[in-house]
Specification:
The chain is of the alpha/beta class and 284 residues long. Helix content is 41%, strand content 15%. Bound molecules: S-adenosylmethionine (SAM).
Length: 284
């Protein structure tokens, strides 16, 4: 890192931060999942970023439980006949190396060229358990993504989309347009995403935006409608799981957060209440 270079240089550096949390979890005796490659991928820059973030330790449960819940959805969907997973903004995720996935499963990772080149180099000698491909693409290049989605759609019979830690960086119009394009291929049938309420978004903005600012990115998406936001775009929420309730069950919360987790849950409009959900969407 040069003296003039910010710690978080661009939006792709947020992938290093996600890898740090997975590496830390991997080191625990009671780990909810183990991702042995995460430490190498996170590197020293990743640790420096994590240490520099205010509240990074206090929020560990949210990162870890998100991964845990997404893993569960993926396992269930594979049992229900998914033959392709398209991981949008895959970052440094290594599920194709660590999960027990069918060897025949097609797994497509899409992200920006810089982070994928970095990942390819580090993982050059590692072997995924399924049929892994990587595509460098700016997912906000609408023509290019439509063409890619159409091509992938023709190669699948039942495709699961994954967007983890991604849509929060974009505004409602951008997310809406992406959702509509994802709804177009008939074989794109399920979509897993993590969603924040407006109240949680404001809290996260307060904690994270000062660190993100130098990279030119910020947190933007936390729709009033909750998971119902996606219905006019062609996607219906069919299962929404609560990271907070899950973390309470797994005994990963502080005392204060445990108290909060006792409040009754709903998956609709949250008003100013901080809420997050790991959502499984389907075509109506
Ligand atoms: C917080 S990371 C999440 C990575 C991964 N999904 C995970 O959970 O570890 C956000 C990711 O979004 C990617 N990203 C941001 N804007 C993008 C774009 N326009 N096209 C493709 N990927 C993008 C970044 O490169 C980064 O890898």
């Amino acid at each position: 890192m040069t003296q003039t270079e910010p710690l978080i240089r661009n939006i792709s550096d947020t992938a290093l931060l996600a890898a740090v949390y997975r590496a830390r979890e991997t080191g625990r005796q009671d780990a909810l999942f183990r991702e042995p490659l995460a430490r190498r991928l996170a590197g020293t820059r990743g640790e420096q970023i994590a240490v520099s973030m205010p509240f990074s330790d206090r929020n560990t449960w949210a990162w870890v439980v998100r991964t845990y819940l997404v893993d569960q959805f993926i396992e269930e969907q594979c049992q229900q006949g998914v033959d392709m997973v398209v991981n949008l903004a895959a970052g440094l995720d290594t599920r194709p190396y660590r999960m027990a996935l069918p060897a025949s499963l097609q797994w497509i990772e899409i992200d920006l060229p810089g982070i994928l080149a970095y990942k390819e180099e580090i993982l050059a000698n590692e072997k995924p358990v399924c049929a892994l491909e990587r595509v460098s693409l700016d997912l906000f290049d609408a023509n290019a993504r439509r063409e890619l989605f159409a091509q992938l759609g023709r190669r699948a019979t039942k495709c699961l989309i994954l967007a983890e830690g991604f849509i929060i960086y974009f505004d409602a119009d951008q997310v809406r347009a992406l959702a509509e394009d994802l709804a177009a291929p008939a074989t794109f049938q399920r979509w897993i995403l993590d969603l924040a309420s407006p109240g949680l978004l404001r809290l996260l903005q307060k904690n994270m935006d000062p660190s993100l600012k130098q990279s030119g990115s910020s947190l933007k998406f936390g729709p009033e409608e909750g998971p119902e936001f996606f219905v006019p775009c062609g996607w219906k929420p069919i299962d929404v799981r609560s990271p907070l309730k899950t973390a309470a069950r797994l005994k990963r919360l502080s005392f204060t957060m445990r108290l909060l987790s006792l409040l009754p849950a709903s998956n609709g409009r949250q008003g100013s209440r901080p809420w997050s959900g790991i959502c499984l969407l389907a075509k109506p």
